[in-house]
Amino acid sequence: MTIRLFNTMSRKIEEFTPLAEGKVGFYSCGPTVYHYAHIGNLRYFIQNDVLKRMLTENGYKVTHVINITDVGHLTSDADSGEDKMEKGAARDNKSVWEIAKFYKDEFLRDFDDLNLIRPTYMPHATEYIQEQIDLIKQLEELGYTYEIEGDGIYYDTSKFVGYGKLTGGSLSGNRAGARVEFNSLKRNPTDFALWKFSPKDEKRQMEWDSPWGVGFPGWHTECCAMSMKLLGNHFDIHAGGEDLSRIHHNNEIAQSEPIVGAPWVKYWMHTSFLVDKSGEKMSKSNGEFLGMEAIRSRGFDPMAYKYLVLLSHFQAQLAFSWEGLESASNGYKNIVKKLATLLSETDKGTVDKAVYDIWHDKMLSTLSDNMKTAETLVIVQDLLKNSDINPATKIALFEFVDRLLGLQFIDRANKLNSLESEVAPAEVQALADARTNAKSEKNWALADELRAQIDAAGWNIIDTPNGSKLVKKI
Ligand SMILES: [Zn+2]
User: Fold this and answer.
1) CATH of the domain at 376
2) Rounded to the nearest whole angstrom, what is the distance from the C-alpha of residue 30 to the centroid of ligand 1?
3) 29 C-alpha vs ligand 1 centroid, how far in Å?
4) What is the domain range of residue 123?
5) With a threshold of 0.85, does the pTM exceed it?
C-alpha cells in the first residue's frame, strides 16, 4: 500500500520509501526526565505510536528508538541557564539520578496507560557519554569546533553550509552577540555547546572526564550519538514535537551531516502543539499541571484522551479543554457500547473475507495517507452503523482497528459486558430501590439526589421499560 508522509525537510507530502527494503529505522526525541510528562508531549508520543502501528500493518519491521534525556538539557536554548535535571533534583530534594529514575518510571506508566507500544530501544544520554565524546572529537578534527575558555566546546555554525535548512529562514531565536555564561561570546549567534565545562567552584552531580576537561555533553549531541549507534549512520524517520525543529533538529543535522554525509535522515516529522483556547502552547490549566494524573483523577479513561488526540491531525494544533475531552470520552464510550452489544450477540455469523478486505484496506489506506487519523475514525463509525455487515466481520475488523490505532475498543467492550453482569452491592441496590419509591411518589428531587449517590458509588442506573438496572461504570 502506498504510504505518504509530510516531510518537514521538503515541506511536502512525499511517498514513503525506506532505505532498506522491508525495514524502517525510526527515532523519536524522548522526554527530559526532570518532571512528569505533559499531555501535550504525550500527544506527540501517541502520534508516533500510531505511525509505528501503521508502518507495521503495512508489513515493515520497525526499529524504534525513544531516548531518555537525563543530562545536558538546559533551561535556555542559548546554552545558558540551569540544567533542567539539576534544577528538578533541587526542587524535589533528591539526587539527579533518583529523579531520572522516578520520572522515567512515571513516563512509562503514562506510556502503558495510553497503550503505546514500548520502543525497541530506550537509551539514556548518560549511558552514551563516550559516543558523544567521540562525535565531538570527529567534529573537532573536521574543524567545526572552538573553545570558549571556562565555558565549553562550541559548534561553529558558519562552517556548515546549509545550516538551518530543516526549517529555513533566519534562526533569530539565538540573538546575535547573545552572551553565554562566564561573559564569553560565541562566534555566531546560532553556535551551540557540544561540551560544557563544570563550573570551577561547583561540583555537579553529573560530570565526566573528556579530552577538553570535566563537564557534560550538550543536549543536541546526545540524539546524534544514540540514533546513529542504534539505527546506523542513516535512518528513515526522525520525529519530534514542533518546538524541536528549529534549534534542536537543525543542530542535530549540523553535527551529523559533516560526518556521515547528506541527507542524514530521510523523513522529518513534527507533531504540533496542544494549545489552550487562546491558541497559546498549553502548559498548565488554572495553575494545575496537565499530566495524565490530571486526566486519571477526573475519572477519564486514558483511551478517551487518546481518542481526542486522534480526532485531530498531527500537523494541526489541538485546542484542549475539559469539555472537549468530555465529548471525546462520550464518543469513545458510544463506540465501546455498540461493540459490546455486537460481542454479546449469540448468532454472530462468520467472517466475510471479501467484506473484511474492503474495509481493512479502506482504513489502512486512509491512515497511510499522511496519517489521517480522524478520517480513519469516521470509517470506524461507518463500519458500526453499516447494517449489511454481520457481527463476526465487524468484530474481526475491530481487532484490526485495535492493532492499528491501539484504542483498546475490544478490551473495553468486554469489560463493559462483564460489568453488565456484575451484581451491585447491597447498599447501592438499596439506593436504587429507594429511588424507585421516590419516583413512584413523584419526588423527583429525592430521585435525583439518590441517582447522584449511586453515581458517586461508581454505578450507573439505567431506566428500562422493565424497571431500572444497575451497571458498573467503566
Ligand atoms: Zn533529540
Assistant:
1) 1.20.120
2) 7
3) 4
4) 4-271
5) yes
